[in-house]
Amino acid sequence: MRADMHEVTSSFEDILDRVSRSRITLVAGISDTGKSTLVRRLADELPAMVVDSDIGQSDMGPPSVVSLGYRREGRFHMTDGYFVGSVTPARHFLQLMAGVSRMVLQCNRYPLIVNTTGLATGGIGRTLLTEKINAVSPDLIITISTDNELSYLNAFRKCGIEIMNMMPGPDVREKSRAERNLLRGRAFREHFEGASVQSIALQDTGIERSLLNNGAVVSPDTIRSELGFDAVHVEVSGDEAIAVFEDLVPERETIALAFGTKVISAYAASDFENVLVGIIDRDGHLSGLGIVKSIDFDRKVINILTCAKDFSVIQFGTMKLDPETFASAGQFLPSFYRA
């Protein structure tokens, strides 16, 4: 049995009129239902700002980024962004929610339209969309659905949020995984067009989402003489440590006993190659994305392929990107050892 919110569907003209009178509108739907198409049509008709939080298939900024901007003459223009660190919301809820909240707060012109990811059903999807709505506090929610998969959003009517429903357009079709990957790679390639390798001294930049460059450095000579094995780089902060080894990471028992900390993040030096990072400028805004080519721990320099020029903070992502094909090249995850 269908829920009440799906008994009446609205025309584009009705939705356009209502969005024009709303402060914040949020568009929701599962993948390949036409959310982005609707947002483009609305932004073509209205002097609206747009937050695109579809980090896997962004219409505005590069993948992995929550984008803020506007649309003019059939094109989106990004004015700010927040680096989530991955093209999937899974395991990145905090970064995604922080990005959406920050972009909404940055907006100083209305109406504002918020596009969402296609992860909207199942336990994880319901949680993500529900909390995104709680964070954004829209006046209006537009759902695009054919059945009752989004009926759980009816609860927001109880707190004064209007909900309108649209059927997917006739031209909407499901994209294959291969097609999604192709489009994502094309978007990354466009973002990195004209990029060059920049060498940044670690002492001159901050690093977020990693213990790297944020702890007390232990010299390799001390590690070798006191603990009996070689390490390229070691930092300790409280009960945590980060350890980088030339090649193979020692056995769990060895490294746990050696550092005397509760949590150890262990890497091989090559693990840092091709990691996708966000570059933040001195004003705290996203300057662009980068791909780590290497880290020279002896010279304390990180080499990054990027178009960005202002390097105040480097935010580490959790995915790797092939700098030749711009296809996903795996994940960037340490070997975690807990005492």
Automatic annotation (TrEMBL):
GO MF, one annotated term: ATP-dependent polynucleotide 5'-hydroxyl-kinase activity
Cofactor requirement: a divalent metal cation
Coiled-coil stretches: none
UniProt xrefs under SUPFAM superfamilies: P-loop containing nucleoside triphosphate hydrolases
Database matches in InterPro entries: Clp1/Grc3, CLP1_P, P-loop_NTPase
Reaction catalysis annotation: a 5'-end dephospho-2'-deoxyribonucleoside-DNA + ATP = a 5'-end 5'-phospho-2'-deoxyribonucleoside-DNA + ADP + H(+); a 5'-end dephospho-ribonucleoside-RNA + ATP = a 5'-end 5'-phospho-ribonucleoside-RNA + ADP + H(+)
Entry's Gene Ontology BP terms: RNA processing
Nucleotide-binding keyword on record: yes
Assigned keywords, A-Z: ATP-binding, Kinase, Nucleotide-binding, Transferase
Domain called Clp1 P-loop: residue spans: 30-194
Known EC number: 2.7.1.78
Class of this enzyme: transferase
Biological function: Polynucleotide kinase that can phosphorylate the 5'-hydroxyl groups of both single-stranded RNA (ssRNA) and single-stranded DNA (ssDNA). Exhibits a strong preference for ssRNA.
Official protein name in the record: polynucleotide 5'-hydroxyl-kinase
Species the sequence originates in: Methanocella arvoryzae (strain DSM 22066 / NBRC 105507 / MRE50)
